Amino acid sequence: MSSPFAVFGPGVVMVTRTDTTTPYAVNVGYSQELSIDLSGTEKLLYGQNQYPLVATRGTIKATGKIKAATLSGMAWNACFFGGSFTAGRDNYYLNESRNVATTSVVVTNAAGGIVDLGVTYASTGIPLVRVASAPTVGQYSVAASTGTYTINVSDENINLLFNYSNFSSAASGQQLQVTNTALGSNPTFQLDYWTNLNQPSATPFAVRLFSCLGTKISLAAKLEDYMMPEIDFSIFATAGGSVMNFNFPQIS
User: Fold this and answer.
1) pTM of the predicted model as reported, rounded to 2 decimal places
2) Average pLDDT, stretch 227-238?
3) What are the DSSP E strand ranges found in the chain?
């Protein structure tokens, strides 16, 4: 008796953005879960008795979910955002320790301007309060364009921790910019799933979903755990009527 065919593990998940002039494919990478759910409405016709005389199925709702253990900006963009990338990234500088000898100081990475993220006393962790100008004890003001912080004379010669960020186009990486686009503006993608239960010589089980629409993306950070981004999507038909293909190794 031959071994039964089984599917084990998350397999390989690839998405191909289809609403652009030149489609591009992305291996989501380190996939943890892929689920596909098909749910049809049930229509029953009754007469005078308890059981229906006719049963049929109406519309079908097709949805799915991808869970992966990697942060792929290209996959997120293809599945959900449909935005654009800019070379560079925001750099974050946390707890930059400075003992301010005068009432003003320019932080180390001020070139190009900064975004202020707060100031605290190093000894207590108590935050100072930002004001527009003329700070009193426990307050500060900042000129973001130059990265200049101003404190009260009573806070001089006290160790302070400065938190801020700035954007650098020369930094490694890229930034995905999400903007408020018009309703109906969204990417669409094809999804391909492949797995063969660690049998290199076997014909694998594979699925192709021709047209998908991202409906939800979830990013959850937890203590002592990895972020596992989740993307929910709906499945719909192409203009030619294709919805999905299932590829089985068996010949019926």
Assistant:
1) 0.86
2) 96
3) 12-17, 24-27, 31-45, 54-68, 84-87, 89-99, 104-106, 115-121, 129-130, 139-143, 148-151, 159-168, 174-177, 189-195, 205-218, 230-236, 244-247
